[in-house]
Amino acid sequence: TWGHLSCCSLRFMLRCGAGAGATSARRAVALVGQAAGQARTIYRGDGTVEALILEPLVLFARQRVRGDIVSVKGGTMRNFLYPKRLANYATPLNKALMAREKEILRVAKTFAAARAAGPAGPRDRVVKALEGVAVTIDAGAESQVFAICDALQGVAPVVPSAVKMPSARLNAGSHTVSIAVEGAATPATVKVTVA
Fold first, then answer.
1. Which residues contact 52 (CB under 8 A, 6 or more apart)?
2. What pTM did the predictor assign?
3. Which residues pair with 89 in a beta bridge?
4. For the chain, first and last CA: distance in Å?
5. What's the Cα-to-Cα distance from 95 to each of 45, 70, 170, rounded to whole Å?
6. pLDDT digits (tens, 9 = 90+) for 77-98
7. Strand pairing partners for 192?
8. Cβ–Cβ < 8 Å for 9, 1
9. Residue 76 buriedness (CB in 10 A; 0-12 / 13-18 / 19+)
10. Tens digit of each residue's pLDDT (9 = 90 or more) over 25-77
11. Whole-angstrom Cα distance, residue 141 to residue 154?
């Protein structure tokens, strides 16, 4: 990759003593990165580089979160933050990608809040209709699941795979059975009396 080429060219130029030493080597690395269209390693005159934080961490005694841009020494970025995927180089491309990601998350949160506050959907209405309904089934029924579905047909259509019983067969007495409605946030609970 071009990042690998940048590091190799930097080492080569430092060993050979090309030009004015480290400063010209840093410039060469930046030019190689720009030729690739990303300008990955951009050192400032004081040997620092901008880092785009990817994971929450404590850096320089301050809590940093995803999207923060901090100035760090080149060695810290190259040897610690970047290899552990805690930060990425703050190039214009990476900054634009992070801004786009933040915008997508903001829109998603807005839609989630609107959905939570908005009117109940048809599936949630089915859950509300089923909630707290009490049905009685015969203890001698061959399939208790089908008996529960038949008893609930007057309230809402229920498929047998949606019925979640506490055990394979219910004994005589009162039991709480969950009805999972596809697409609803929570299942409905129904009181089933086996007589």
1. 67, 68, 69, 87, 88, 89, 90, 94, 95, 98
2. 0.41
3. 51
4. 73
5. 21, 12, 60
6. 999 999 999 999 999 999 999 9
7. 135, 175
8. no
9. middle
10. 445 444 444 444 444 566 777 889 999 999 999 988 899 999 999 999 999 99
11. 19
Q: Is the pLDDT of residue 100 over 50?
A: yes
**Cβ neighbours for 178, distance < 8 A, ≥ 6 positions apart:** 163, 164, 187, 188, 189, 190
Residue listed under structure tokens 């009162």 = 174
Query: How many residues are listed for the chain in this entry?
Result: 195
Question: Amino acid identity, residue 165?
Answer: M
**Structure token pair of residue 139:** 């203890």
SS3 157: coil
* Amino acid found at 66: R
Question: Is 42 within 8 Å of 89 (Cβ atoms)?
Answer: yes
Sign of the four-CA dihedral 53, 57, 63, 66 = positive
